[in-house]
Amino acid sequence: MSTLTIDNIHTYYGNIHALRGISLKIEKGEIVTLIGGNGAGKTTTLRTISGLLKPREGNISLDGEDLLKYPAHEVVYKGVSMVPEGRGVFARLTVLENLEMGAFSRKSKEELNHNLEKMFTLFPRLKERRTQTAGTLSGGEQQMLATGRALMANPTVLLMDEPSMGLAPVLVELIFDIIKKINEDGTTILLVEQNALMALSIANRGYVLQTGEITLTDTAQNLKNNPMVQKAYLGME
Amino acid sequence: MMRTSFSERLTDWAVNGFLWGFRILIVLIVVIGTFLTISSGKYTNEQWIDFIVSGISQGSIYALIALGYTMVYGILRMINFAHGEIFMTGAFSGYFFATWLTSTGFMNTNPYIGLTFSIIFAMLISASIAMLVEKIAYRPLRGASRLVPLISAIGVSFFLQYAFRGFFGPGVYAYPSIDALDGDWNIFGIEILKVKIIVVVSAFLMMAILYYVVMFTKMGKAMRAVSENKDVASLMGIDVNRVIVTTFALGAAMAGAAGVLYALIFRQVSFYMGIVPGVKAFTAAVLGGIGNIPGAMVGGLVLGILESVGPALFLESIGIDRPYQLKDAIAYIMLVMILLFRPSGILGERVSKKA
Ligand SMILES: Nc1ncnc2c1ncn2[C@@H]1O[C@H](COP(=O)(O)OP(=O)(O)O)[C@@H](O)[C@H]1O
Ligand SMILES: [Mg+2]
Fold first, then answer.
1. How many domains does chain A have?
2. Ligand 1: does its nearest atom lie under 6 Å from the Cβ of A121?
3. What ipTM was reported for this prediction?
4. Is A129 domain-assigned?
5. Is A17 among the domain residues?
6. Count of structural domains within chain B
7. What integer pLDDT is reported at residue B355 of this predicted model?
8. 3-state SS of chain B?
9. What's the predicted TM-score (pTM) here?
């Protein structure tokens, strides 16, 4: 059974036709990556799934339930969380408050505390800095915070928008290890990346997005060996 | 090319020269005036304390109103120019409620409970009106450029003034006097009017409650999250519209309470009573750094004290006749000065250009 189904989505910014009929299928437990150059429409795709943008055409469903009928703040209750591009931490809130906001959709105090413990185990750095405002964190720490915050909602599907952006190579490795771990713990992941090599190395399958259209889809292994992909996204000749 | 840049430089110098002259003039007035007044010994210590107490009670009212400006600005980057009228609706609601309680005799037997109920009633009415205003006059304009909701706010301001004028007439209503609240209390050997103390205590209590709500409750944290980033806040599951309307309601509740406290001191209400305190409180919010909640509280108190102490301290000795008539001018000069010299206010961060 398929978890998240995106079917023939057309999203516009005013008159700009940003997504031209995109279809994706993400099965339960998978890591699927969406790769593409700058301006291809990766962020737009994730924002459409999370409800921040409404498509003019198409369907999005999670386990058969239509997601498009929900505004963004209700989509998270359905089990879809997003780590936004540029991390989007609340700079003036403390680390702890950011994590609490992540669990806004969770009603019970026990669940909140349980999830906090989980996040502090996953990201010990955040525990050390929990009373600091998020604006004082380094880029890597902010990425951990944004990820932890999204996980606080106990999502079944996690959407991640360029988690490696602007991070030093060591940190990129660390973040990708964490993504793998989150997935092993049972969360389905849709990973958007410009760092295609890293993304394909942890993903099961991938889609290639070009100017608002899916031009290619295959297993991650096959995409890595595909000459077109190697040339365009992996910087190989 | 050279000539335009030369003339540009010339205007730059002229503007800078004027600004510096203005700054120096104000500093001179303050320093010389203060020196002359203190050395002339015209006022006794009791009188100074009285000025300061009046300033704190007036300032705490400004602070309560300023909170609404600053909270709405923080969340929508919009100046809610109708906020002074929300304050006025609070004073009116409090008036009718207090008059009714007085006519039943309840007010004079239980003055504190009666006053508390009047304040709560005013808060509820003001909050309800503000919620309606947000829904009708601001929410549909949310996506428009910043000037558009500002103009709508000015329209709402006139609408509320003339609606109240229409319902209750252009006259001034005298607040019922509560006998138990007349007279003085002796605090550390100083006689202070009871109402002033009641005003200060109620205002500080209310500000403490608001601060607690904003800092420590789930809704307060959501308000701060929304003020930073609405999209990301909604990704958390926060209903941004609900948070915005709650912000309006909280700010309006503070202004409504301020309306009752104001009427407690000045003993009268009228449809235009919101204008001047509204501008003063806006000044206080800017003074403290618009968008900054502790800043609004500090700004209100500073403005209240300066207004109260300023005429006697700065102006009287430099030969200004009847300096109290310049009380309002102090507030407006301060507004201009802050906007010119420190737009971020006392506690504000530097206003960022990228937002
Ligand atoms: N807010 C916006 N308004 C107008 N056009 C936009 C906006 N955001 C993105 N676009 C356009 O939509 C296209 C896809 O953008 P985006 O989804 O951000 O790409 P990616 O994330 O793959 O870099 C680009 O052509 C971009 O210019
Ligand atoms: Mg992007």
1. 1
2. no
3. 0.93
4. no
5. yes
6. 1
7. 33
8. CHHHHHHHHHHHHHHHHHHHHHHHHHHHHHHHHHHHHHHHCCCCHHHHHHHHHHHHHHHHHHHHHHHHHHHHHHHHCCCCCCHHHHHHHHHHHHHHHHHHHHHCCHHHHCHHHHHHHHHHHHHHHHHHHHHHHHHHHHHHHCCCCCHHHHHHHHHHHHHHHHHHHHHHCCCCEECCCCHHHCCEEEECCEEEEHHHHHHHHHHHHHHHHHHHHHHHCHHHHHHHHHHHCHHHHHHCCCCHHHHHHHHHHHHHHHHHHHHHHHHHHHCEECCCCCHHHHHHHHHHHHHHCCCCHHHHHHHHHHHHHHHHHHHHHHHHHHCCCCHHHHHHHHHHHHHHHHHHHCCCCCCCCCCCCCC
9. 0.89
